[in-house]
Specification:
The protein has about 325 residues and is of the alpha+beta class. The chain is about 15% helix and about 50% strand. α1 packs antiparallel against α2. The protein is globular and about 75 Å long. The mean pLDDT is about 95. InterPro entries: YqbQ/XkdQ (IPR056937).
């Protein structure tokens, strides 16, 4: 593994590392790198706040980010905490958009923040106009992607790909099973499988719309009586803009009930690591004892590299 530090003052140097932890999340968080370096005399090799850190392992480009925190202890361990570019979307501001696609809206947010961008796939669907006051930029990004998912059933992820922000359809980020898979005979050494109706499951969707002309509130409901009988009533509530037509609201109802009215399945794995895996990609999992043989979406991914041993912890879900 090679770790290079660029202090942005003309100094670029390689440092020996004792451990590296790289974390990525599919939604709402910047990628982070925690590295422990071996520096006997840290004052001779200072690491400036904002310094660029670049991590590679052979042909694998792992992390390109910026130092936000450093520390040193009596064991001569020098600790660095760095983030990728998504960290610079954690600011609050007022965001005003006319109807536009997630592709165009998110790219404007990134460009206005002075960030480098790479591949931005076209999402196609125009998200309705929005005004978000005192909101975090990354939360506005999530709203663009959530609106697109509900309207089109297409799921996109924004991530930093070694120094460039990319927007990709998750279906284009699958790691093919014939190239790499995780199972009892391949990399896996521990797992935790769970089915749930506790967090993202709703069998009743209620949408309301205020009508200023009549002074009344219009109510629209879609529900699955069979699942209500099995699970009890689990309701999602939304208030929509008065400009939406009844047809548009009913279409939204149909899409929401289809998306939410199901059990969620999640899987947590501890296994040997592979640098191809990051949040937002699909990996194939084969665990015969619980009947799992399918692709899972990586929601959270933590890579640990220490003493030459590479492991990873994955939080997965079924889409």
């Amino acid at each position: 593994m090679e770790v290079l530090i660029d202090n942005r003052d003309g100094t670029v140097w390689g440092v020996p590392v004792s451990s590296v932890q790289w974390k990525t999340s599919r939604i709402g968080k910047a990628g982070t790198l925690d590295a422990k370096l071996i520096l006997e005399q840290p004052t001779k090799f200072p690491v400036n706040s904002g310094a660029i850190i670049r991590v590679t392992d052979g042909q694998h480009k792992i992390f390109y980010g910026y130092v936000f925190e450093t520390g040193f202890n009596t064991s001569s361990e020098f600790h660095i905490k760095a983030y990728d570019q998504l960290r610079y979307l954690m600011y609050n501001d007022t965001f005003v958009f006319s109807a536009t696609t997630a592709t165009a809206g998110i790219k404007k947010i990134a460009t206005d923040a002075g960030l480098k961008t790479g591949t931005f796939e076209e999402t196609g669907y125009k998200v309705p106009a929005m005004v978000e006051d005192n909101k975090k930029a990354l939360d506005v990004v999530a709203k663009f992607l959530d609106s697109t998912l509900i309207a089109t059933n297409r799921n996109y992820v924004l991530f930093d790909n070694f120094g460039k922000l990319e927007l990709r359809n998750i279906n284009n980020m699958a790691i093919q099973a014939d190239d790499f898979y995780i199972g009892e005979e391949s990399l896996l050494f521990d797992f935790d499988y769970k089915k749930s109706i506790d967090e993202e499951t709703y069998n009743r969707v209620k949408i309301v719309q205020d009508n200023k002309k009549t002074g009344k509130r219009e109510v629209y409901i879609a529900q699955d009586s069979a699942n209500i009988a099995k699970w009890g009533r689990l309701q999602e509530f939304r208030k929509v803009d008065e400009k939406m037509t009844a047809a548009q609201i009913k279409d939204l109802l149909d899409k929401l009930i289809k998306l939410r009215n199901r059990e969620t399945k999640s899987l947590k794995l501890n296994c040997l690591g592979h640098w191809k895996v990051r949040a937002g990609c699909f990996v194939f999992v084969f665990i015969e004892k619980i009947g799992v043989r399918q692709y899972f979406l990586v929601d959270e991914c933590t890579h640990n590299w220490e003493g030459g041993v590479h492991t990873m912890t994955l939080d997965l879900k079924v889409i």
